[in-house]
Amino acid sequence: DAGVIQSPRHEVTEMGQEVTLRCKPISGHNSLFWYRQTMMRGLELLIYFNNNVPIDDSGMPEDRFSAKMPNASFSTLKIQPSEPRDSAVYFCASRSGISGANVLTFGAGSRLTVL
Amino acid sequence: AQKITQTQPGMFVQEKEAVTLDCTYDTSDPSYGLFWYKQPSSGEMIFLIYQGSYDQQNATEGRYSLNFQKARKSANLVISASQLGDSAMYFCAMREGPGNEKLTFGTGTRLTIIP
Known about the structure:
The structure holds two protein chains of two kinds. Chain A is mostly beta strands. In chain A, about 0% of the residues lie in helices and about 55% in strands. Chain A contains no helices and eleven strands. Chain A is globular. In chain A, about 35% of the residues are buried. Chain B is mainly β. Chain B contains no helices and twelve strands. The interface between A and B is medium-sized, with 24 and 21 residues.
């Protein structure tokens, strides 16, 4: 299996631009998570989906952030408009509901820089 | 209150020595899971080891073991015979309650192995 695949790996954009981050979870995993990592706040859960349905989006910072999961193999995290404080590494992770240990498998991350 | 506390921001250890990374947690739920992840300089998050709150024995995975002291609410990671490749950030995380999908992470410990 190729693991969790994220794109782009690096994104540099200017303030006000729209940013779309993409994620392909591991086939067969029915839960998908978006995390954000910054020096100041560490790893924060933004939103997670179960069977393509958003379950908890309480970590989404504000209305500029939105996430979708149109099918079991694809999810997007969109920031519109982007701001410099959104600069961070965004991780996507997926998990199989079968595992008792509920281990999250992370993608390599998307490093976002907003100028 | 912090759910996961890692009090060692950084540690330096001589190669081949054992190292203990501290983690304490806070929960009132009797059912929970504790995880350790490694994040090398390349940025990916790598799952290391899992301990369930009802597990009778400490978890072990190769050179990694988890020193689980339930009454003290601590879940320290022990790495035996450290190697240069162990240099990385290490994160402790907790999932509270049965059926809860969310993982809450600590702030991490940066481990540096000295040759």
